[in-house]
Design goal:
It contains six helices and three strands, in the order ββααααααβ. It is mostly helical. The protein folds into two domains: 42 residues, no CATH class; 160 residues. A three-stranded antiparallel beta sheet has the order 1-2-3, with no helix packed on it. It is elongated and about 70 Å long.
């Protein structure tokens, strides 16, 4: 095995310097590693942005709903509304945690941590499922938004005034970009060059780019 020993002068050991040996037989980082890391980090940021936007949409709708109840436009169903608030807060918090996790995993994958590559699939698959469900819901909003006819209900009119059509479209763009970035980043991990890079080295070392001696 060819190794590079970092050394200074003959007097270096006397000053407490301990040379470090690095393994240079390991393959260089494939470009796909940088690409997949960037895509996963972007997906994490998009997920955080999307769940915050979705939460904002829900609470905007709640304000409209509560005002409509106060004005007598609709019956008072505040108990069911409270349950919805709790659920959406939990979903928003979960989305932020998952998005942050993807960004952290992207950093560890970039520096060659094999475990992060595995965990990224565990985190990424549920996010892809969420993206698919969100697309279905947003597509329904885009199709039926503003379809109340010449005389839409008062509640619908108030909601569409508070949350215009373009915000639904923007949310859809975020979800599509999220799914595309995450799926592409995960698929990059399946390429042969990436699999070879993350394969355990001699002696069972599973991480790349680390010192093998000191």
């Amino acid at each position: 095995m060819v190794s590079v020993v970092a050394a200074r002068t003959e007097s270096a050991p006397s000053r407490g310097y301990s040379p470090t040996v690095y393994d240079i037989d390991a393959p260089r980082r494939p470009p796909l590693i940088a690409a997949s890391s960037g895509l996963l980090a972007a997906a994490g940021a998009l997920l955080i942005g999307e769940v915050l936007l979705s939460a904002n949409e829900y609470f905007t709708g709640m304000e409209v709903y509560e005002q409509a109840m106060s004005d007598g436009v609709i019956p008072n169903y505040s108990t069911f509304a409270a349950v919805g608030v709790v659920l959406h807060l939990i979903m928003a918090a979960g989305g932020i945690v998952m998005g942050a996790a993807l960004m952290v995993l992207a950093a560890f994958i970039f520096v060659g941590k094999r475990w992060a590559r595995i965990v990224s699939w565990i985190v990424g698959v549920p996010v892809l499922l969420y993206s698919a469900l969100a697309m279905v819901g947003l597509l329904g909003n885009l199709i039926f938004s503003g379809s109340g006819g010449a005389d839409p209900s008062e509640l619908t009119r108030r909601y569409e005034q508070a949350w215009p059509f373009w915000l639904h479209a923007f949310d859809m763009v975020l979800v599509v970009l999220l799914a595309a970035a995450l799926l592409t980043g995960l698929v990059c991990h399946t390429r042969p060059s990436v699999a070879a890079y993350f394969a355990p080295q001699d002696g069972g070392v599973a991480d790349r780019g680390q010192a093998v001696g000191s």
